[in-house]
Design a protein that fits this description.
It is a single chain. The protein is an alpha+beta fold. It has one domain: Glutaredoxin (3-Layer(aba) Sandwich), CATH 3.40.30. It is 56% helix and 10% strand. It contains nine helices and four strands, in the order E-H-E-H-H-H-H-H-H-H-E-E-H. The protein has a four-stranded mixed β-sheet with strand order 2-1-3-4. Helix 2 runs parallel beside helix 8. It is globular and about 45 Å long. The two termini are 15 Å apart.
């Protein structure tokens, strides 16, 4: 019997993806579901789906994001800085590092969480190669190897394909989860995602 899977589309600048990371992993383990990690170019997704980058949103929307983020941090017992020093820099290289590792069959939960934590908890610039090198090294990985792999044409093509597939699946924000063609947007929909998985798998 084929193991069920879900497609996980996320941005390597997404504070909400950070908040949902451990719960998504636990959900998948409970139901023996494979997570297919698909980092995307969210600014491109926004351009193609009518989204607006955070810095370009009205002050009212920016203020409410902070309020809601604080609520979720309190609920989950996770601390993040809603306005870090290096907020939402270019995430292309970070995304491609995760893709490169995933293509080699490496578990990527700890890697992508470390990148998100660097931005939202540690005041580090995740667009910087030096930052990514330090993160990889701290995880016991060969930083030079993975930074070279991240720039390969194969990895770049997967990054573009992930972004195109996300839009084809109806994705317009991060994090987004697609299970058997059904889209769930946001870490606050993980409970509904689990209900859908349970109903389909009988778990």
């Amino acid at each position: 019997m084929t193991r069920p899977h879900l497609d996980y589309y996320f941005w390597l600048n997404s504070d909400w993806a950070y908040l949902g990371a451990d719960r998504l992993d636990a959900l998948a383990r409970r139901h023996n579901v494979e997570i297919r990690h698909k980092p995307v170019d969210l600014p491109d997704v926004y351009r193609r789906t009518g989204g607006v980058l955070l810095s370009q949103r009205s002050q009212e929307r920016q203020n409410y994001r902070i309020t809601e983020l604080k609520r979720w941090c309190h609920k989950l017992g996770i601390d993040v800085n809603p306005l870090p020093k290096y907020m939402c820099p270019n995430a292309d290289l970070a995304s491609c590092v995760v893709i490169a590792a995933d293509l080699q069959g490496m578990p990527v939960l700890d890697l992508y969480k470390a990148i998100l934590r660097a931005e939202w908890c540690e005041e580090r610039d995740v667009s910087s190669e030096a930052t990514l090198r330090d993160i990889l090294t701290a995880l016991g990985l060969n930083a030079a190897q993975w930074l070279v792999a991240a720039r390969s044409s194969e990895v770049q093509a997967v990054y573009r394909r992930n972004t195109d597939e996300a839009i084809a699946a109806g994705v317009f924000g991060s994090p987004s989860y697609v299970f058997e063609g059904e889209l769930f947007w946001g870490q606050d929909r993980l409970e509904m995602l689990e209900e859908a998985i349970a109903s389909k798998t009988g778990a």
